Amino acid sequence: MIRVENLHMHFGGIRAVNGASIEIASGSITGLIGPNGAGKTTLFNVIAGHYQPTSGHVYLDGQEITGLPPHELFHRGLLRTFQIAHEFSTLTVRDNLMMVPGGQMGEGLLNAWLRPGQVAAQEADLRRKADEVIEFLEISHVADELAGNLSGGQKKLLELGRTMMVDAKIVFLDEVGAGVNRTLLNTIGDAILRLNKERGYTFCMIEHDMDFISRLCDPVIVMAEGAVLAEGTAEAVKSDERVIEAYLGTGLKNKEPTA
């Protein structure tokens, strides 16, 4: 579904992404891990159109999307969430969801005057869909709560819910577990798995919690110094000497044997 070829993203003399090439298969939940400064978030930002790459190519379903702006990628079904949730804090959870689809008739003043019935019908459809998403994510108890009052984990669920309001092909999740307690993290994980298995969502996720990655992701891609270091199952990459060295600064071969 996504193919990245020899991607470079340089900021002056800093090579944040340095020749990375990855593939994300349709229907997969792909994990992207690596030490801080490995280039993971920069790679996400290039794929999602927030940065124009220095060089290299990005393809979605065989069509080049390199450098397309986020709003165009949104309409092609490529969505990206952020480590810090971007909710509308003064709107309710339901209203946050209802705002997501673009081109709503109610956005035009003339439609509100001349086609009030059609505007009301579309709004009712959006409300029904939002309520289905709220029920799916098991957050009905906060449906009418202002989004700014939610916990960190609930805001991450709301971000996930916003991707469900449109026909997403692939969703890039940036540290969906950051600052989330274990109970809500399990709820988020369950929702991701259900979206993948029941609705065919494809995910790529940056995450530091290896238990969470191991539960959800296959394959797992490891980045270091802006390039791909290793790829495989979670268990395989956790035991890879190069990965251990990238994270810890030394490989197993340099450890003193225990008695």
From TrEMBL:
Domain ABC transporter: 2-250
SUPFAM superfamilies xrefs: P-loop containing nucleoside triphosphate hydrolases (SSF52540)
InterPro entries in the cross-refs: AAA+_ATPase, ABC_AA/LPS_Transport, ABC_transporter-like_ATP-bd, ABC_transporter-like_CS, BCA_ABC_TP_C, P-loop_NTPase
Signal peptide: none
Gene3D superfamilies found in the cross-reference section: P-loop containing nucleotide triphosphate hydrolases
Name recorded for this polypeptide: Branched-chain amino acid transport system ATP-binding protein
GO cellular component terms, semicolon-separated: plasma membrane
Keyword match Transport: yes
GO MF: ATP binding; ATP hydrolysis activity
Keyword tags: ATP-binding, Nucleotide-binding, Transport
Pfam families: ABC_tran (PF00005), BCA_ABC_TP_C (PF12399)
